[in-house]
Amino acid sequence: MKKKLEALIQQAVISLKKEGVIADDIGAAITLERTRDAQHGDFATNLAMMLAKPAKMNPRQLAEKLVAALPKDSAVTKVEVAGPGFINFFIDSRSQYDIVKKVHELGSDFGLSQIGVGKKVQVEFVSANPTGPLHVGHGRGAAYGSAVAGLLEAVGFTVHREYYVNDAGRQMDILATSIWLRYLEECGEPVRFPDNGYRGGYVGDIARDIYKNAKDEYRCPIGLVLEDIPKDEAHGGDKEAHIDALIARAKSLLGTMHYRDIFQAGLTNILDDIKNDLQEFGVEYQEWFSEQHLMDDGSVDLALNRLQASGHLYEKDGATWFASSQLGDEKDRVVRRENGQYTYFASDIAYHMNKLDRGFDLIIDIWGADHHGYIPRVKAAIQALGADANKLKVLLVQFATLYRGEEKVQMSTRSGDFVTLRQLRDEVGKDAARFFYVMRRSEQHMDFDLQLATSKTSENPVYYVQYAHARVCSVLRQLVEKGLPRDIVSGMNGLTQLAEEHELSLLSTLERYPEMLERAALTHEPHQLILYLRELANDFHTYYNAHQFLVDDDKLRDARLNLICAVRQVLANGLKLLNINTPESM
RNA sequence: GCGCUUGUAGCUCAGCUGGAUAGAGCAUCGGCCUUCUAAGCCGAGGGUCGCAGGUUCGAGUCCUGCCAAGCGUGCCA
């Protein structure tokens, strides 16, 4: 209907141009929107006001001329000029009934569109370091990322969901060393745990597993481990130097093979946990991409060679720098340290080169908002590799600030003091967690009160939407219990009986679903979908309280049942897209 | 200091990319169950859209300057 009206308006503009009322060269981007107030009809355009100035005409006069030039259409009952120059369209309510048939015919396909067909999009999200279990901050990225991916798929894009596994680098060494020290404790060595080590209980769990299987195989006397190690922070030293020395010591005492055993035990264990966690959260990936793999297959070298060849690298102070400041970054960045090691950024350049080489039309990275300063350098890298920086779209997710009632919860991965995603799921369930996470705009700060969210009796909006779905199911059960017949075809033929205000309102909300979905997908804003579902549920609950569905009049009953079944279908389509359950009873 | 983001009802947040009288959920107050599930519905109160200018027919939305908060500003990841 919206597209139809836009076409009509376009024709009116063309004919006015032919008459010379408006100059040919005036651009006319038609903005047609649904009215908020029923007095303003169903759709309205501000076109006359937009064109008034270039056409040198009074907006209301121009609006009158536009209306006069508008081709007749049976679906449009009235067109009027209002206010400062709005053109309001009133739609024949009979044409609105078609939506019920359409939903019924298309079923779970209703709302899908084709605008993304033929385009490949990569969505990389979560990508938390495998140094510990996912916490509630990652949960938001997971819910948001999978919702964005789902939306893009719904409008036709081919979506590749990917998790970048940071399985190389210093953090992983710190983890491995932490595990080894816990293991030594298990062996009975009097270990003093480093301030900068990973203190979470899972580290000890992994260490105990290793001890159970290997006994003393990896054991070294603690005296040897600590010999000549610089002081830790608690003793007036530098915690970074302390842990780095411990890592080096672990490697030298254990030897390459044994060190790798510990390292792998940590990586495998934690990564499996993350995979399992996300799966239970309803998040699926097409690919888990290993950073180490980029190192091993020479991609990092290749990427740097390409930057070297195009003149974007230089040497200074013994390190290799990327001249990103020439491509919009604040300053140049080191890619290879003085000690010969690549920086994290170097492998990230290689990773994005890899993404580009895979031929995606659009690359979406979803990051925590604390990484926003990183965007210019990655975009610079993409440009330096000869690609269009606009191919990369970085979406930021603000971390949720956690509260327990009034008290703010401090979180630190290192200290192990954090609420895990799994804990959250156990307490509030997958559905509530997903819904809650995606309810707000992603770049918006979000206060997450655990007491409220973990309270079973809390007024959680997800129940509100699910309840509407369950209620329709319940009505259909009642129909059977009362032994009443249902004739879908007759109901479709009798849709025009649905003239109550609540019914017309539902029809128009249903019709909005596809365009809402398209917008939510293209703007990467799943909260639009949540908002819509709450609105649809609200319309339904209001209708439910105002009118009886299982009335004696067969025709009317059939029509109403068809309407509420369409509501149920759309609720289900939206909830499934968000991977939230659609209970038949509650 | 500089950069990015945010500032809307007591609280948590929407606001369709510049439109008509700024909305919803909690919370507060008042109503609705012998009738398809009250996890629901109806109603009321509650606002200097951080502040001050500017752009124009029209600004919560755009531009500038302040104020406040968060994050970033490593040869960390």
Write the layout of secondary structure elements.
Layout: H1 2-19, E1 32-34, E2 43-45, H2 47-55, H3 59-69, E3 76-82, E4 86-91, H4 93-96, H5 98-106, E5 120-124, H6 136-154, E6 158-165, H7 170-187, H8 201-214, H9 222-226, H10 239-280, E7 287-290, H11 291-296, H12 299-309, E8 313-316, E9 319-322, E10 333-336, H13 344-357, E11 362-368, H14 375-384, E12 392-397, E13 400-404, E14 407-408, H15 421-438, E15 446-449, H16 450-453, H17 461-481, H18 488-493, H19 501-522, H20 527-546, H21 554-577
Parallel strand pairs: 5-6, 5-11, 6-7, 11-12, 13-15
Antiparallel strand pairs: 1-2, 2-4, 3-4, 8-9, 9-10, 13-14
Helix pairs in contact: 1-3, 2-3, 5-21, 6-15, 6-19, 7-8, 7-10, 12-13, 17-20, 17-21, 19-20, 19-21, 20-21
The chain binds one RNA strand of 77 nucleotides through α2, β9, β10, β15 and α17.
